[in-house]
Every structure is written in C-alpha cells, then in structure tokens.
Amino acid sequence: xxxxxxxxxxxxxxxxxxxxxxxxxxxxxxxxxxxxxxxxxxxxxxxxxxxxxxxxxxxxxxxxxxxxxxxxxxxxxxxxxxxxxxxxxxxxxxxxxxxxxxxxxxxxxxxxxxxxxxxxxxxxxxxxxxxxxxxxxxxxxxxxxxxxxxxxxxxxxxxxxxxxxxxxxxxxxxxxxxxxxxxxxxxxxxxxxxxxxxxxxxxxxxxxxxxxxxxxxxxxxxxxxxxxxxxxxxxxxxxxxxxxx
Length: 245
Known about the structure:
This protein has six helices and two strands, in the order ααααααββ. By secondary structure, the chain is mainly alpha-helical. Among the domains are: 22-105, no CATH class; 167-244, no CATH class. The chain has a two-stranded antiparallel ribbon. A hairpin with a 4-residue loop joins β1 (213-218) and β2. It is elongated, with a radius of gyration of 42 Å. The N and C termini lie far apart (125 Å).
C-alpha cells in the first residue's frame, strides 16, 4: 500500500527574505539613508524655528495682517506633523535595523551597537535633565505656597484693609466737618463768587487731598459751584445734572 504523506507547512529560509526585498545597489542604499538623515535633520531644525515664531506671536511683537491665533494654531499643527515625520523615520530605521540583524546581514551587529550607543548618549542626559527640571519646578511651587510667603500675603492684606478703614474714617470725619461748616456759614444766601471763596478757605482747613474737590449744588436756584485743590487745578470736574441728585 502506498503511504500518503501529510503536507508540511512551508517555513521560508533566511535567504528567501532577501529574495522578497527589492534589489537595490549599495550606492542606492547609502543615498537613501543619507536622504532620510537629511530629512530628519531638516525637521529637527524647523521645530525650534516654529517654536520661536510662536513665542513672538504670543508676545504680540509682530504686526501681521492675519490673526495671530490662526498663525499660532497653524504653527502648532506644523510642529506636530514634523514630530510625527521624525518619529516615523526613526522607527522605520529601527525596524530595518532589527530585520537586518535578524537576517545576519554583514555589519548589522555593529550598526545595532552604534544605534544603541547613540540612543543611550541622547536619552540618558535628557532623562536626567527632565528629572532635575521637574525637581526644580516642584521646589519652586512649594516655595510659592510656603508658610512664610502665605503669612506675608496675609499681613499685606491686613495692612491694606487697615489703610482702607483709616481712609474711610478720615473721609467721614472730614465730611462731618464740611457739613458743620456749611450749616454754620449758611452758604445758601451767598453769591457764586462768595461761595467759591468759602470753598477755597474750606479746602485749606481740611487735610490735603481729603477731599480733593468740593461742589455745592443749590437745587432751588439751579446753581452749582465747584472748587478743587492745587493738584486738580488743571482738571475740569464733570458737571452732575441736578435731576440725578
């Protein structure tokens, strides 16, 4: 009886992978790698340039006909695209390197060691700087919310509230003095010139700057007289309509 043999699954050899790849010369392969490296370098040079332009747009130091928000949005998108291109090219080169190492191509092990050395020299200082910057930012934030700084802010707030309260009390006392002076002199029977002179004398008696100006409005005669101290001599006070009082 003839024995039937079960078909076995075909396992391609390592040389079959080389046959499936398009045949390119060594010179073409080197030119391709040089082109990829130039593209990566060009993208890496454009990223800080666009970042600098974004900073200039945030400072509003450029007078452009286009809205700066639109330009910032466009530059951010361009930076993201450039980062994706660089990431794609780097991962593509790493994948090719892994395949060449798997196929035991001449020089693949040396290239792998060089790439690992390059990544180590690039990533290790970057990671160290990242942790140092993170620690610096954390310590700065902790200093901002330190108890001594918080106490200083509370003391400043108390001082400001005390000054406001003292100013209110001084204004109230001055207002009472002005009201008593007006009741004593009975300024309603005076002429506008006499009223101006009385107000000037009143401004000299009260503390400087409290108040800076005095206005008397007589509703029955539709008369308004205003006087100000020396600091407001060149400023015209606004006229308040009598019907609003």
